[in-house]
C-alpha cells in the first residue's frame, strides 16, 4: 500500500513539474517569440525603389547614397532608376498608381501638383525629426527653399538643390582680348559690341527652352521693380490684378531682352539648340558668354576642352535701376518625395533624412558641383574653380528667388512671354497686353483651385 502511495505521489509530482515547466516555457516562449518577431521585422529584407531625374547632376550622388545607405542598413537594397526624361516618364505612373517607386527625385513643380491631389506623403513631421547627424531639416534648410517647399501649409518633399543661374563667361577669351566682365548694363552694351567686332557672338543659351531666360528676367524684375514689385507678383492681392502686369518693371525687362535680339547679341541658330548643343557651342568658343546655371560643368564634364576656364557672374544693372547692383538668381531645383502608394514609407523617410545630412550634402557638392538647399560646412571640399565662382557669386551679390504663393499667377509672364520675344513673334507691347488681358481669368481660376483644397 505504501509503495503504491509513493508511486502515486511521485507520479503527481512529475505531472505538476511538467505542467509547471510547460507553463514557464510558454511564458518564456512568448517573450522570446516577441523578441524574435521584432528582430525578424527589423531584419526583413526591403527593396527601396528610387526614381530620379538624371540631368545636369548626373547619377554619381545617387550611387553614393545607395552604397552608404545599404552599408548602414544591411536589410535594405536600393534600386535606382535614373532617366533624363524622368519628369515626363513618372507622371502617368504616379497619377495612375502603376509601377510607383518608393521615392521620387524630380522637378518641384510636380510636388505642387501631386501633393494636394493626395499622391504624395505629407512630410511636415519629417522636418522636425533628427537626422543621423543630430540636426533637423527645419534647422538646416535655407530660408527661401523652406518657403518654396510649402504647399497649402504642408511639406510634401525635401529640396534637392539650390543653385545659382546667371552669366557664364569664357575666362581665357576675355583675358586674351583684354575684356573685363561689366559692372553695369551700359558696360555690357560696350562689351557686346567689342565681342561682335571679333566675329564672335556675345551670348547664347538653350534656345529650345525659353526658361533659360528666366534668370535674366527675374534679376531684372528686382532691379527695375524693387522688392515691392517682387512681392506683388509673387504674393498679389485681388486689387493687384491685372494692374501689376502693366508695371514699368515688366516693360523695362522685356525691352532689354528684346534689344539683345535686335542688336544680334544672341548667336545665330540659338533658338534651334537644346541645352547640350548650346553649351557645346559655348565651349567651342562660338559665343563668349552663355545664360546658364551651376550644373553646366558637371553636365558637360566629358566635353570641356583641356585648359578651358569659365566663371559665373551676376546680371549687371542699368543706370535707371531701382536696385542698382548686380543680381544673380538662386533657386530651388528639384525635390525628393514619397508617393502615397509606396509600400515602404518609413524606410523611405529614413532614406530622405539620410540624404539630407551634412555628409550627404558635402558629397552632393563634390560630385555635382552644385549646392544642396541646406546650410552645411563647405570647408575643405574638393570642388573646381567654376563651382567656387558659382558659390562666390551667390554669396557676394544680391540674389533673387521668385517663390510664388498659391494666390499668385505664377505662369504670367511665363514661357510664352519670353519665348515670343526671343522668336520675334510678338512685340514687347503685345506680350504685356496679352498678360494684362489674361490675368483676371487666370486669377479667378486660381482662386477656384485654392478654394477646392
UniProtKB/TrEMBL annotation:
Record bears the keyword RNA-binding: no
Keyword match DNA-binding: no
InterPro entries: Bact_solute-bd_prot1, SBP, SBP_1_CS
SUPFAM superfamilies found in the cross-reference section: Periplasmic binding protein-like II
Signal sequence extent: 1-20
Family membership noted in the UniProt record: Belongs to the bacterial solute-binding protein 1 family.
Record-linked PANTHER family: ARABINOSE-BINDING PROTEIN-RELATED, POLYGALACTURONAN_RHAMNOGALACTURONAN-BINDING PROTEIN YTCQ
Protein name, per record: Extracellular solute-binding protein
Lineage: Bacteria, Bacillati, Bacillota, Bacilli, Bacillales
